[in-house]
Amino acid sequence: MIKSKKLLAVGMVAALGLAACGSDEDDGDDTPSTEAPAEEPAEEPAEEPAEDEAMDDEPAEDEAMEDEPAEDEAMDDEAMEDEPAEEEPAAEVAVGVVYDITGRGDRSFNDAAGAGLDQSVAELGVVPSESTPTGDGDRAERVQGLVDGGAGLVVGVGFLFGDSITAAAENNPDTSFAIVDSVVEADNVASLVFAEEQGSFLVGAAAALKSQTGSVGFIGGVENDLIKRFEAGFAAGARQVNPDIEVLVNYISQPPDFSGFNDPARGREIADAQYEAGADIIYSAAGGSGLGAFEAAVESGAPGEVWAIGVDSDQFNLVSEEIQPYILTSMLKKVDVAVFNTIEAFANGEFAGGVQVFDLAADGVGYSTSGGFVDDITGDLDALAEQIIAGDIVVPQAP
Q1: Which of 71, 89, 296, 311 is the most exposed place for a label (fewest CB within 10 A)?
Q2: Is the dihedral of CA 345, 347, 349, 354 positive or negative?
Q3: What does DSSP assign to residue 41?
Q4: What is the pLDDT along the chain (399 residues), one digit of tens a residue?
Q5: Does residue 45 fall inside a structural domain?
Q6: Is the peptide bond before 256 cis (omega within 30 degrees of 0)?
Q7: Distance between CA 248 and CA 263 in Å, rounded?
Q8: Kind and range of the H or E element at 157?
Q9: Residues 207, 324: one domain?
């Protein structure tokens, strides 16, 4: 390329030289002979092909640029390989809860279980289903109905579901079950039981510390072994504080009649009698019947003169403003915690069958402070709780 440029330049110089020699030899006017050659250098654009040739070389760069997309494609492929695969939507976690015959709205046991289910819906996104039997005759049907509806976990609220959960667990081995207040021996059943006597001991102590008459009362819904644990703990706690205190005890019904858990009128009647007999604080472990005992407190004296003690849930927050000043405290049986923890374990693939005990050490039972009526004695109650946890106080499970 460079060699051809040199030859072209030599040729142009020779041509100019010949033109000049010709003008010297020509006898005519020198002007035309000198101007014409001066214009010929306008042919210099003939050198442009050199630039064109240089431009001709540029496609090599273009070719290199054309090769770049291949690198980009490789990089894109690598990037795509590095990108995590899209996660498939998590499978729905379906949970069913079957309540005792009083259902939600009892402001006690069933509502506590319902609160645990509600929490799991809000925090875990589970898909809930709920059912309430009309009596003992359709308990098994209600349990199986939740299974047939797609629930992977079914929770039976109350010891009366013992037989129904036992049968359902055997017939549906791929479904998980939980039961509150009873023990079912099956690999796919979690039995959620509580140390009711320990929580009742603390509210019994509170009653003795607050009583002005030296007499307190206990009302049980049904006289069975479970409710006797409430009675035993309450009486033991009261006598721990005051060995001479009087504890009046009445039950609303006897097994197999379980109507005592849903008979507010009878609960009110018994509470009226206990207040009239001198009791100034009454503890009811009677489900929906306890509401009747609260109403009796309102009619029996001014706030602070007579008291009522709630059960299972913090009932101060569940009753009317008229009744609230009469709720000294409540024995907290944290069914909501047990139900939520069981659902959470199931949702996380960590469900395990077997007995799970919710006692003071596990924060499964306790007492409430809403209303501020026991604020002056919480130190005494907490000290007693520590002694129970340490084993220094052994609370009886039977009267």
Answers
A1: 89
A2: positive
A3: G
A4: 433 433 333 333 333 333 333 434 344 344 333 333 344 444 444 444 444 443 444 444 444 444 444 444 444 554 445 555 555 555 799 999 999 998 998 888 999 999 999 999 999 999 999 999 998 899 999 999 999 999 999 999 999 999 999 999 999 999 999 999 999 999 999 999 999 999 999 999 999 999 999 999 999 999 999 999 999 999 999 999 999 999 999 999 999 999 999 999 999 999 999 999 999 999 999 999 999 999 999 999 999 999 999 999 999 999 999 999 999 999 999 999 999 999 999 999 999 999 999 999 999 999 999 999 999 999 999 999 999 999 999 999 999
A5: no
A6: yes
A7: 20
A8: strand 153-157
A9: yes
- The total domain count for the chain is 2
Q: Are 165 and 179 in contact (CB under 8 A)?
A: yes
Kindly state whether residues 378 and 244 are assigned to the same domain. yes
Give dist(CA 310, CA 331) in Å, integer. 6
CATH of the domain at 177: 3.40.50.2300
Are both 111 and 239 inside the same structural domain? no
Nearest to 286 by CA among 255, 264, 308: 264
Is 262 domain-assigned?
A: yes
Cβ-based neighbours of 239, under 8 Å, separated by 6 or more: 204, 208, 245, 247
Q: CB–CB of 205/378 below 8 Å?
A: no
Q: Where a domain ends, among 173, 194, 215? A: 194
Closest CA to 308 of 328, 278, 323: 328
How far is residue 146's CA from residue 132's CA, in Å, rounded to a whole number? 11
Point out the domain boundary residue: 194, 228, 260. Answer: 194
Total residues belonging to the chain: 399
Sign of CA dihedral 218, 332, 98, 323: positive
Q: Which two tokens stand for residue 222?
A: 């049904």
For 371, the token pair is: 């209303």
**265 part of a folded domain:** yes
Is 377 part of a structural domain of the chain? yes
| Phi and psi at residue 125, to the nearest 5° | 75, 25
The domain of 234 spans 196-333+369-390
SS (H, E, C) 285-310: ECHHHHHHHHHHHHHHCCECCEEEEE
Looking at the fold, whether 275 and 385 belong to one and the same domain comes out as yes
Q: Do 152 and 200 belong to one domain? A: no
Task: Examine the domain organization and report whether 290 and 382 are in the same domain.
Answer: yes
Q: Are residues 249 and 379 in the same domain?
A: yes
Distance from C-alpha of 137 to C-alpha of 156, rounded to nearest angstrom: 15
